What we know:
Elements: E1 6-9, E2 17-23, H1 31-42, E3 46-50, H2 58-71, H3 75-89, E4 93-102, H4 104-111, E5 119-123, H5 131-134, E6 141-146, H6 155-165, E7 170-175, H7 192-198, H8 204-223
Parallel strand pairs: 2-3, 2-4, 4-5, 5-6, 6-7
Antiparallel strand pairs: 1-3
Amino acid sequence: SAHLGGYLSVPTSAGPWPGVVVIHEIIGLNDDIRRQCDRLSAAGYLAVAPDLYTAGGALRCLRATIRSVFAGQGPAFDDIEAVRGWLAARDDCTGRVGVLGFCIGGQFALLAATKGFDVSGVNYGPLPKKPAEALAGACPIVASYGSRDLATRKATAKLDAALTTLAVEHDVREYKGAGHSFASQPDSRALSVLETVLGMGYQADATSDMWRRTLAFFDRYLTRPGG
């Protein structure tokens, strides 16, 4: 799109740096996602989170965004591709770019693994119906799920099997006792009762290990490719 809002977090270390496109949850670009970008920039990545709802208010965009993710194409993917190209072309970027997503963003990050990225980090996004077809030609993928997440039952085994069949490098893990959105600390505590009922909510141990694995994986494929 001509104008796409977002949040950019630049490392303080000497560049150039690899880039990472961070894709927000279904609730949109919030402080939690900005913190995830800051965590990446602290680790030496040029991190940008586009606001996929820039074009016309959350509700209208939400419908279009959900249509996009289930179709595997559409305006949201065009926006993600535009941001990937913008990052890769920056003077302070090495040209290698990964994608990291949470919730519906995890679903986007998984499908975007076939769309020119060098590595994909997926956090609790539902799988496409036929993962082995949808992910043919994918870049390396690191994915994390919670055992109590109703939206991604059996996703870990299915994704692992599909990526093994496709010979795509991967690290897929399920965290026992963690639910949906285990790595997110939303600003509003209004969600907390609902989260508790649905087995959602922040899980420090699972989050810490997810970041350890994700950063190790990104280091391998973004910072030291072929190294």
